[in-house]
Target: Ion_trans_2 domain-containing protein
Amino acid sequence: LKHFRCVSVHCWLLLYVITYALGGGLIFYELEYEASKSHWNEQIDKKNLCIILRKLKNYSDETVKHLEHCWKADIDKTKEWNYITSTLYGFGIITTLGYNHVAPSTVAGRLFSIIYGVLGIPVTMIAIAVSGRHLNTLIASWRRKLETFQVRNWDCEVNLENDKEREKEKNEETSSGYVTIIIIGSFLTYVLFGGLLLPLLNGKIDFINGLYYNFLCLAAIDFGQLIPERIALLPITFVYVCVGLALATIAIG
Model:
């Protein structure tokens, strides 16, 4: 019952973080969309002007200056405020990973970022810590089973008490080494799994790039490339990142 309660708390915390991120994304979208739309309209007008200027036969100095900037107005969808990027921006705040592809330009958006982070970061850190503690409990359980198995085998072979003590100390050192290998191996396996999973969320098989961007995310270097194209797949990404951060914390520790 106690184990079930711990798992239940863990699941509820993850569900809260996902809901908080999705709700925050909606608010960020409402606050920033119009300003973003105005910005991109200006970029489109600038590009149209470039096209007109290229059709002119007589180039003045001012025309040449405009032409130098013709191809700097390309629109990058990952840097446009839509619901997905808004949600990823909010998730980047509460996990402290950051999402550097977009940034609020309105006063309301910047103020809300502060409030959103102050309220969301503590709960998210607790959720990640609980996930880490739950994983640590599982690893400790494996360690106890390993120690019990080894002690039983050595009890059959060792007759002297002093030898038993020495073997027990050796057993503890060996099991600690096994646990370290298990933790690091689990983290690397998780990264490999993410390298396959995350590109597949967009219908692609791109293991090398998926592995690279996944490692950057779990190493808390960059979160911006893990972008699912469908809103319904965002929760999968969020759960994967939260569990991965918890596992990375244990591996580093």
Q: What stands out?
A: The chain has seven helices and no strands. The chain has a mean pLDDT of 76.
